[in-house]
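Fold it.
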Amino acid sequence: MMTDYEESVTAEEAGEGVESSPLSASASPLLANVPPTLITYLNSPRPRSTSSLLRTPPVPGADKPILLAIDTCTNRSSVALRDGQVLRAESSWETDRHHTAGVTAEIRRLMDACDIKAAQVGAVAVAIGPGSFTGVRCGLAIAKGFAAARDLPIIGVSAFDVIVSAQPNVNLPVLTLVEIGRSRIAVQRYQWHEGQPVATGAWRILTWREVAAIIDAPFWVCGDVPAGLMTLLGPEAVMAPAPLNLRRAGYLAETGYARWTRANVDDALTLVPIYPPEKQPA
């Protein structure tokens, strides 16, 4: 007995179904914030399908093995491409407020350099915050636009999880930091359990001095550590090496691919960013 997806593919091969209409910002609210150049790039002819929702299975396939990872949560952007075996390409850079143009151009550059076509991308992973309002919104809009254009599964990952996935197990509690502006830091604590970092408690927004004050026992500190904060930290703070503090899309791709293989994906229509709450509990 064929699955719904197999039936839809068989229908295509038989010449059934309706030709997909060109993508446009007016056709889908998910494309509203996606630059026209990216829509044009993705708007190449697609196979016809009787069910666009079943066009791409929620797990990696031989014809669509590539996962695209996008992180624009702060002024450091990062994109990566991963297949079933290796990280094909990764790029991280400091950016200004023009996230959209720079990120979409870098995605195209990496795909062209690796000779990867848009049709080979089977899923998109995106860092959903916390971070700057504009940055988080930009990355999520690009990821949703790419996913909507190709009926792809999308995987949202917190910026904290991206950072902690790069850290070694040094048998210390971990404090992951994401800078959100105005001398404030978003903070999430992790403990190691069976070799894996597990978030403990809710994340918080603290000032630099408040971050320094809570480190009253040995902690592994990683992520966005501004120079002003470093001067306040005492000997109990064990700083991660500089390369491990960079939020890299390669680690986002690794986390996203693991979820993709388990069909643990999100809905592009309901996936929302993690924005700093207006008020924090006392």
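Residues 1-21, 45-54 have pLDDT under 50 and may be disordered.
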